[in-house]
Write a structure and sequence with these properties.
The structure holds two protein chains of two kinds. By secondary structure, chain A is mainly alpha-helical. Chain A is elongated. Chain B is mostly helical. Chain B has a domain of 91 residues: Rna Polymerase Sigma Factor, Chain: A. Chain B is 74% helix and 0% strand. Chain B contains nine helices and no strands. The chains are: A mainly alpha, B mainly alpha. The interface between A and B is large, with 31 and 41 residues.
Chain lengths: 149, 180
């Protein structure tokens, strides 16, 4: 220890003594000593037993190595299967939707004709409806044409 | 006697880890226990906290970089765990720390101390009524004769803060002891 450290040490000791004197002005040193003794009361052999008791507790609390249980694996596999199936199903639906929109114009003419013929009355009704909405009178127009001729 | 540093290195290298740890415990358990017990009074509480502290040390010692002394680090964990414990007790039931609790007074009267029991009771009550930080500084400064630098490091405060806490503690105790 060099001289500076010795001086610092002495200063610290003096500071501690001054602080203790402040406390001992309130209460006698013997009262404080007895207070401290009481605070230090412990059961017999407490410190002798403590390290071993502590180690036992630490070992008991150490995390065990994870063991893979078949039940848990089965649940995990089922969840993965469900997620995969759902994803596959959704993907397939999206593809089918695209195929339908593309295939529409690829439908053979015969099929289209058949569709139109089967639904002709619907188309006719819709056409008449449109005509009525527009207020077109074909018969009167046709007569006027004839008269000009 | 083997140093703390050597024991820590042994622990960190996994060489007879339990032996190294046990040696550290044996070296420091008494001071740590007293530090805690002065704050919480009851042995059962002090024991619980001490075990918590050492278990934390076991978990974190591998990463301890020895930038401070082991004892400072240890007492810092002890200080934090003690405060946590006290705050938890306050939130649930505060009877252990209630100065007006008559059962507390009973423990002092059961002592075979030749000195007047009343003074002891007054002193115990005065100390218990101190805010935790002031109580902690007071105990370490007076009974452990610890310097303010180390106290400040343990508490995570400044040297000035530690000094202020001590002087405020003494002032409060003076008021409480002269109140009756």
């Amino acid at each position: 220890m060099n001289q500076k450290e010795v001086m610092e040490n002495k200063e610290q000791i003096k500071e501690i003594e001054d602080d203790k004197a402040l406390v001992e002005a309130l209460l006698s040193e013997s009262v404080l000593i007895d207070f401290n003794k009481k605070q230090q009361e412990t059961p017999s052999y407490y410190f002798e037993r403590f390290p071993d008791d502590l180690l036992m507790k630490i070992k008991a609390q150490q995390k065990p190595v994870p063991v893979f249980h078949i039940g848990k694996m089965a649940v995990a596999a089922a969840v993965i299967f469900l997620v995969a199936t759902t994803y596959f199903f959704i993907e397939k639906s999206n593809q089918n939707l695209q195929k339908e929109s593309i295939a529409l114009h690829e439908i053979p003419t015969a099929e289209l004709d058949s569709y139109v013929n089967n639904n002709e009355w619907v188309a006719e009704a819709e056409l008449q409806n449109e005509i009525n909405n527009l207020g077109i009178n074909f018969e009167s127009n046709n007569l006027s044409k004839d008269s000009s001729n | 006697m083997i140093t703390d540093q050597a024991l820590i290195i042994q622990f960190q290298k996994n060489e007879a880890k339990e032996v190294a740890f046990t040696q550290l415990v044996k070296k420091h358990q008494t001071k740590l226990y007293y530090q805690i017990k002065r704050m919480v009074i009851e042995h059962a509480d002090a024991d619980d906290i001490a075990q918590l502290v050492w278990m934390k040390v076991w978990e974190k010692l591998a990463g301890f970089k020895m930038e401070s002394e082991f004892s400072t680090w240890l007492f810092r964990i002890g200080y934090n765990e003690t405060l946590n414990y006290i705050n938890k007790q306050k939130r649930t039931a505060s009877s252990s720390f209630d100065s007006s609790d008559e059962s507390y007074m009973g423990t002092a009267s059961s002592t075979k101390d030749p000195l007047p029991v009343q003074i002891q009771i007054k002193l115990e009550q005065a100390v218990q009524q101190l805010p935790e930080k002031q109580r902690f500084v007071f105990m370490l400064r007076y009974f452990e004769e610890m310097n303010y630098e180390k106290i400040a490091e343990i508490m995570g405060t400044t040297i000035g803060g530690a000094k202020a806490n001590f002087h405020q503690a003494v002032k409060k105790m003076e008021e409480m002891l002269s109140a009756d």
